[in-house]
Amino acid sequence: MLMDQIIEDYRAYLEIKGYSDSTIRQYLYDVKLLTKFLKAPPWKADSRDLMLFLIHLRKDRNYKPTTLLRKISSLRTFYAFLRKRGIVHDSPMEAIERPKLPKRLPTFLTREEVRKLLEVADKFRDKLIIRLLYVTGLRVSEAVNLTWADVNFDKGEIRVRKGKGAKERIVLIDPQTLKMLQEFKRRVSPMSDEDRVLGISIRTVQYIVKTLRDRAGLNKKVTPHVLRHSFATSLLEAGVDIRIIQELLGHSSLNTTQIYTHVTREHLRKEYLKAFGTKEE
Q1: Domains of the chain by range and CATH?
Q2: pLDDT at residue 73, as a whole number
């Protein structure tokens, strides 16, 4: 059995299941990484081999628990594929426990901090990127894959066609950002409505956000995903129902969205202590 053929069959399997291009690339890389470590076909590995592989990633490559968790999910999918193909009888990944992750509240920006990012953006495109990520809650991958055909200027809506898990959803967009999108479309003059709106890569968006953070002098982590967190937190603080936020974010489980209730509670506590946290003389 040729490994190259297995890889191609696995790629087709992931595509049929609707995985995004970036996820497919990562999953295929994980299989190749495992094969290189084993120096043997992965279907000959047992749970001990896989445990040694994960230890290697943790100790020799300094992978964080969150990264290891993604690797475990990736390999679970691969061995599920091998089992469906009849290449393995049982998945050795079933014996691998998931690492415990520290419970951390997501970082978010206040409205004032978002305003500072917008103020230091001297390019129209960069200002649009910040507003688009903040007011829609789009993942960075969803933003870069957005086409002009996905933007409904009449209704003020965006259709997310390439969301996580190949799920489609509708997100809303405010009038000011919608007006900026109209102006940006006029400037770039797309050849077709199927052209991508931003026309840049994920890495470029990440670089733009980081550059603006440095320029704005913000002393906290600021990434496209932090802007997504900020979107959710702003909605919750404005009294929007948690289930509506879940739908706008595209979360399959309400438990994932619930983390923002903890964020706003902690934020409320800090604001409260500003007023009543000092000891009376």
Answers
A1: 3-95 (1.10.150.130), 111-275 (1.10.443.10)
A2: 92
